[in-house]
Amino acid sequence: MYTSAKFWDRIADKYAASPIRNPEAYEATLDQVRALLKPEDTVLELGCGTGSTALALAPSVARIVATDVSEAMLGKGREKARGQGTTNVEFRQADAADAPDGPFDAVLAFNLLHLLEDMDSALDEIAARTKSGGYFVSKTFCMPERRNLIWWFIQIGLPIMQAVGKAPYFAKLTTDDLDAAIRHAGFEIIETQMAPGKDPRRTVVARRVD
User: Fold this and answer.
1) Which ranges of 65-135 would DSSP assign to H, the alpha helix?
2) Of 128, 71, 96, which Cα lies nearest the Cα of 79?
3) CA–CA separation, 178 vs 162, rounded Å?
4) HEC profile for 29-82?
5) Could you give the C-alpha distances from 39 to 61, 127, 171, in angstroms and in order?
């Protein structure tokens, strides 16, 4: 369990110190999620990292369970929560398979699905933890359609970094792959959006259907 935890533990300090690359896009995503949530909702976030998103959304909901495989990342999140006086976010070490059962009004997975070796199983677990009619919101790296610098780096540079322990597992998903997997898990996709500029991440808002 938590096969990638050591990698993320090792980079937790650097990750926590790194600025958000596109603050405007990040705030737009937060606003998009807030529009779906109600004050009485309970939310599960998978792959929460150092907790920035969970803490930003905490005032909008009753409770958030923020999970990650890295205990070092979670420690950073707990420090932030104490510093901000946030009490309705619980940080817990878990992956999709052993996250709290819920069901939750919304499940979030930002910058996560492309890092999972078995995305289909993870999506099944996510669906099982989402209320009927509840939301699943993800932001996922998808392969560029054109062979640009990012495409070439993933094909050539990334394997070298992985071989020396400088990069984690990384799935080469297309947008069609991602959407099909989300639908197969029992979700209806209600909105999709590519990040602005050359950012190849795809936001998907989906609703659990029976």
Assistant:
1) 71-84, 119-128
2) 71
3) 23
4) HHHHHHCCCCCCCEEEEECCCCCHHHHHHHHHCCEEEEEECCHHHHHHHHHHHH
5) 4, 22, 35
Q: Which two tokens stand for residue 12?
A: 């937790």
| pLDDT band at residue 1 under the 50/70/90 scheme | very low
Question: If residue 91 lies in a helix (H) or strand (E), which one and from where to where?
Answer: strand 89-93
Predicted model pTM? 0.92
Q: Please name the amino acid found at residue 47.
A: G
Provide the CATH topology of domain 5-143+171-208: Rossmann fold (3.40.50)
Q: Which two tokens stand for residue 5?
A: 């935890």
Residue with the larger pLDDT of the pair 98 and 81: 81
18-63 pLDDT per residue, tens: 888 888 888 999 999 999 999 999 999 999 999 999 999 999 999 9
